[in-house]
Design goal:
This protein is mainly beta. About 10% of the residues lie in helices and about 50% in strands. It has one domain: Lipocalin (Beta Barrel), CATH 2.40.128.110. The protein is globular and about 45 Å long.
């Protein structure tokens, strides 16, 4: 009976049915979450979120089966202007006292060509959940000088802030809005493998 159990284990491993799951965490020192939005039509204001965490679970080396969860502290928004940041944290925008976290949970991560991927998932912000898709470039996987396995990605995408109830703005006399509706998101992510 013991031999049968060992044989069954070998068969599962050989066929990939019992593959080991790898856990990855975000290396915050080498990761960033940034955004850009039009200001008065003529220029773009950029900012970032400084507090975030997340995890990735995968069995495949190319990450095509990756399960991704990402959490941002809304209050950590930073546009390099204190008054503007306080306004963004207020009930006019993120209402951070009520909606403390922005969350993303993936539903699929598929390779489109070479090192290019498409990441789809549910983004919850300001109490509203909507599906979003990001274009992803996989930079590769390496072992750093300290023996840690690292993987790098760049994510880009767009969303309409009105879809999440972030509707505050003022109209310009010449037409258009003081704050644009479309937000461009860019995340540069370095993952560190937690089990070897």
């Amino acid at each position: 009976m013991k031999k049968i159990g060992i044989l069954f284990t070998v068969l599962l491993t050989a066929t990939g049915l019992w593959a080991q799951t790898s856990d990855w965490e975000f290396d915050k020192a080498h990761s960033s979450v940034e955004f850009g939005i039009d200001h008065m039509v003529i220029t773009e204001v950029t900012g970032k979120f400084t507090e975030f965490t997340g995890s990735v679970k995968t069995e495949k080396e190319d990450f095509t089966d990756a399960k991704i969860e990402f959490y941002i502290e809304a209050k950590s928004i930073n546009t390099n202007n204190i008054d503007r940041d306080d306004h963004l944290r207020s009930a006019d925008f993120f209402d951070v006292d009520k909606f403390q976290k922005i969350t993303f949970v993936s539903t699929s991560f598929t390779k489109t060509s070479g090192k290019n991927y498409s990441l789809t998932g549910n983004l919850t912000m300001h109490g509203i959940t909507k599906p979003v898709t990001f274009e992803v470039t996989y930079g590769g996987t390496v072992v750093d000088p300290y023996g840690n396995t690292k993987a790098g990605f760049k994510l880009t995408g767009k969303l309409n802030r009105n879809d999440y109830g972030l509707t505050w703005s003022k109209a310009l006399e010449t037409g258009g809005l003081v704050v644009g509706e479309e937000v461009t998101l860019t995340a540069r992510v370095e993952l560190m493998k937690m089990n070897h």
